[in-house]
Write a structure and sequence with these properties.
Strand content: under 5%
Number of domains: 1
Shape: elongated
Largest sheet: none
Helix content: 55-70%
Number of strands: 0
Number of helices: 5
């Protein structure tokens, strides 16, 4: 029953409505789309947040560990040392930032 109702509603939604050119007139009357003058703000905030998060992660690393050492530990399969966890966390934060920037279609 639900599938049949869903099919009927979707089929009805696909049907074209005769609006006597109303849609075209409205679209012509709208002003042209202009890019926001502050289009750089969102990427700058996102990148700044990623940098700040990475700096905080580096500052709060356990004593004696370094991010470079974490990557070395990962490359040599030494396990999840605190430095390796911090290195992965910083790499993940930057990767997520890059994905969000790349996915932004505005």
């Amino acid at each position: 029953m639900t599938d049949k109702l869903d099919f009927l509603l979707r089929d009805d939604a696909r049907a074209a409505l005769d609006d006597a050119g109303f849609h075209a007139r409205v679209m012509r009357a709208l002003p042209p789309h202009r890019a926001s003058p502050r289009a750089w703000v969102k990427p700058a905030l996102l990148l700044g947040s990623a940098v700040l998060g990475s700096l905080l992660a580096a500052l709060y690393l356990p004593a004696g560990s370094a991010v470079i050492q974490g990557y070395i530990d990962l490359a040599q399969h030494r396990g999840m040392t605190p430095a390796a966890v911090a290195a992965l966390a910083m790499a993940g934060a930057l990767l997520i930032s890059a994905i969000v920037l790349a996915a932004d279609t505005e």
